[in-house]
Amino acid sequence: MTRGSARAQVPHGGAERYAHAAATAASTVVGEYSTSFGRATRLLREPVRGHVRVIYALVRVADEIVDAPDLALTAEERAAYLDALEEQTLTALRTGFATDLVVHAFAHTAREHGIGPDLVRPFFASMRTDLHASRHDERSYATYVHGSAEVVGLMCLRVFVAAPDADDEMRAHGYERLAPAASRLGAAFQKVNFLRDLAADRDDLGRAYVPGLDPHALTDAQRDALLDDVDADLAAAAAGVAALPRSSRRGVRAAHDLFAALSARLRATPAERIAAERVRVPAPTKALVVARTLLPAGWR
Q: How many CA atoms lie within 13 A of 236 on its CB side?
């Protein structure tokens, strides 16, 4: 593509040009941080892909405020930045404008798809928890998983059910019908991350998310119990994934299957190794998992 043809796709109007710049900035943020997610989102059709990347860009910015280890910020300063990001996001939901490009892009997506404060506030509440809580009981764990992961799945679902290829029934009732599956899928992703990142969360951040689990003395039985929970969530989510419009079905199936592969790899890894290092799915395996989602159902 020539420079001229690329420029021709950029809107000329002030508001549209700013929105385009904001969406480009959000896409750049996602591209810098995520490999597995990037693979999965490439299977989403536009405009769904762009909207989902915008949602994850805001999530990533908030996560960096809270967790980036090399920021020379106190916990109080991180809290102030997080509060400011939440306030700017909520304001942008009302006005449709933000000076922060990622927030502006998120507000554009949110206003178009009905993503409101009922999903935004729990997300920021969970992020804020990371600044003062290093351990969880069953109640705070469930609240944290809901705000940090389930609501993100629900934000994405708002986009999926409003896609151009969604039928009238999906647009009218799809969100309520598929919300439980979207929540379970988001929860599965987060719980897998808790186990995969056990050593880093313990050593770099001083946190242990799973109630009753000693990150210094993980046992195979504890590993299996957590992964049983994860696999139950993934199984519950599978039917919901299959019911999504075609514009999102393959991308979400790829994400589902990538995390299922990570769950299986963790289950085959001794607990002492999980407690010492980050377990990864090899790149060729990831590529194979994604490729399988492109095959007809009977060929997988």
A: 18
